[in-house]
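PT: before anyone asks, these are the final sequences, not the draft ones from last week. 228 residues across everything. Please model them as a single complex and drop the result in this thread when it's through.
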Amino acid sequence: SQQGEEDPQALSIQEGENATMNCSYKTSINNLQWYRQNSGRGLVHLILIRSNEREKHSGRLRVTLDTSKKSSSLLITASRAADTASYFCATDNQAGTALIFGKGTTLSVSS
Amino acid sequence: GAVVSQHPSRVICKSGTSVKIECRSLDFQATTMFWYRQFPKQSLMLMATSNEGSKATYEQGVEKDKFLINHASLTLSTLTVTSAHPEDSSFYICSAKGTLLRNTEAFFGQGTRLTVV
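LR: through. Structure below.
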């Protein structure tokens, strides 16, 4: 089963612009993670934000978490063509043993 | 980060045959491994969770007799798609967690593209 939804499903921007992706989830969480997937490849862990955190930064990435709205956003600043990929949010399943992924946002950055 | 190696990256097989996919943790002991399936332009769907030395736990709707999972050692899990059919064509991804790693971070293999003809 899937935990949540990302929006938009697809996003096309120019290099240098910022990209914002949103994720909503359904159940209470201990943490939320964002992953990146290049076409036809595995996933790369980007950032984890815990339920008691509201915002976290890592390089050009900024993640926010609003547990009252059960939503998170991923902001990529000063995007590059190499940022072109699909981005997924993920939370633990009910047993806390595995990750459940959202539907993902496909980001396309053109130069 | 920790490295998970998945093999093969691509495989084409005939309908009715079986295919084995390997997932190895190269620099850590993976007490738990996960198998996901991903259809084109869709998200990852958890198929099963396997713990070393015990039977895998399958998600609802996943046929355990069709998707055989073996996690016989702390560095290797295998997924065997038995009697494969064209509808089994998909992208299969494994991930692994280890006791020495942070509890919440899982590392992913590069995926296996299975095409059944």
